[in-house]
Design brief:
binds flavin-adenine dinucleotide, FAD/NAD(P)-binding domain, alpha/beta, Enolase-like, domain 1
Length: about 400
């Protein structure tokens, strides 16, 4: 690629910020335009429901790069800039202010937006979602000792938010529609351990909760359940999942199916357009199927791999399927995809809260959770990726070193 060429990245989030860095690292000397509709340079989102919600600090520690880094690396960072169209014929991107920029290659890292809850009162003052730093700032300003917070959704974001709200002195009710927490990600038995944790820490956790409406006179005052019960509330936080931002790609005629469809090089159905991060639906050899991953590690690693491929590389990306969540003082790490297992094997001190859970299918590990036991995650990943069959008794025995099993 010549120095006169231009790479455009749409979406200045984690994936976009890391991709720009990887392009320069790969030696690309042309123009890089990084377009983001938020008012902040790229930052990491995990602290939004954790440290930044518990504490009062700004984004400094969560930023991917120092503000000066963009100029130093000749990255044209356009903030508060919304890309409205891609014209594949003229190879241009149009911004909301009418500016049109030509590209040689384009990377879409448009991420995802929150799924909205379609019930009466969901637009009242005091109802929050958490996706960006403005959301976190708005919510934490309302959380104080005595605040009555109701969290709708018992997934990662909802549960992390519940723990953080509790730390700020609020009382917290969590309403989860299904009969367990973190439904699609972990086994019911592990979810039940976490339900015990939240209750023990003081969260009023209600499973199987059917919500009818949020009510109040101009602002949130209560959440009304389908059976008529009213739960008093000062703030309501909704965490019921995300929706990938595929509209630009779809309008440009790119293949879209639960995300922008890419190959293992991050390439879309147009060879000059790539996609990565939460918005990308990618092949995964370990599971043998396509996945759209919503994780920090994927946003970072897939974007960097796609960026290198845009710079002439020829690198197949395979995600490590690793994700974590921090709830209260408990660190949960997950690898693999926890579905269709036929046996769960527990290892370690479950009661004391330091253990691992293996998900076995026909003796092979398809997923692992570690709870306050992150040091065993890497060996667990090695065992899982090996595709070998393991003796459940050996996995469960804390005297058996996992690395030894990996080498056998
Ligand atoms: C509160 C919270 C906590 C999390 N905690 C964890 C965790 O503990 N562990 C973990 O593994 N993962 C966690 N995640 C997930 C992780 O942060 C995401 O997977 C990651 O941020 C995805 O990065 P991305 O760059 O693909 O998308 P995003 O972070 O969504 O960034 C996309 C960016 O593109 C912008 N954009 C979209 N469309 C346009 C357009 N047309 N024009 C201009 N800009 C546009 C968006 O505004 C956004 O800034 C968490 C996420 C959240 C929200």
């Amino acid at each position: 690629m010549s120095d006169q060429s231009c790479f455009i990245i749409i979406g200045a989030g984690h994936a976009g910020g890391r991709a720009a860095q990887a392009m320069r690292k790969a030696g690309y000397e042309g123009r890089i335009v990084l377009i983001g509709e938020e008012g902040f340079p790229p930052y990491e989102r995990p602290p939004l429901s954790k440290e930044l919600l518990c504490g009062d600090s700004g984004l400094e520690k969560a930023q991917l790069h120092d503000p000066a880094w963009y100029d130093e690396n000749s990255i044209e960072l356009r903030l508060n800039a919304h890309a409205t169209a891609i014209d594949r014929e003229s190879r241009t991107v149009t911004l909301a202010d009418g500016e049109t920029i030509s590209y040689d290659k384009l990377l879409l890292t448009t991420g995802a937006r929150v799924r909205r809850l379609p019930i009466p009162g969901a637009d009242l003052d005091g109802v929050f979602y958490i996706r960006d730093f403005n959301d976190t700032q708005g919510l934490r300003a309302r959380l104080a000792p005595g605040t009555r917070a109701v969290v709708i959704g018992g997934g990662f974001i909802g549960l992390e938010t519940a723990a953080s709200a509790l730390k700020r002195g609020a009382s917290v009710v969590v309403l989860e529609a299904s009969d367990r927490l973190m439904g699609r990600s972990i086994a019911p038995e592990v979810a039940s351990w976490f339900a015990g944790l939240h209750r023990e820490r003081g969260v009023d956790l209600r499973l199987g909760a059917a919500i009818a409406a949020i009510e109040g006179d101009g602002k949130v005052e209560r959440v009304v359940m389908a059976d008529g019960e009213a739960i008093d509330a000062d703030v309501v936080v909704i965490g019921i999942g995300i929706v990938p931002n595929v509209e630009l790609a779809e309008a440009a005629g790119l293949e879209v199916d639960n995300g922008i469809v890419v190959d293992d090089h991050g390439r879309t159905s147009d060879p000059d357009i790539f996609a990565a991060g939460d918005v990308a639906n990618q092949p995964n050899a370990f599971t043998g199927r396509r996945l759209r991953l919503e994780s920090y590690q994927n946003a970072q690693d897939q974007a960097q791999a796609a960026a290198r491929n845009m710079c002439g590389g020829d690198e197949a990306y395979e995600d490590s399927l690793w994700v974590w969540s921090d709830q209260h003082d408990v660190n949960l790490q997950m690898t693999g995809v926890a579905d269709a297992w036929d046996e769960l094997v527990w290892r370690g001190d479950v009661e004391g809260g330091c253990f691992a859970v293996f998900y076995l299918k026909d003796g092979k590990i398809i997923a692992v959770n570690t709870v306050n036991n992150g040091r065993e995650m890497r060996p667990c990943q090695r065992l899982m990726q090996s595709g070998k069959r393991f003796d459940p008794a050996a996995l469960a025995d804390p005297e058996v070193k996992l690395l030894r099993l990996a080498k056998e």
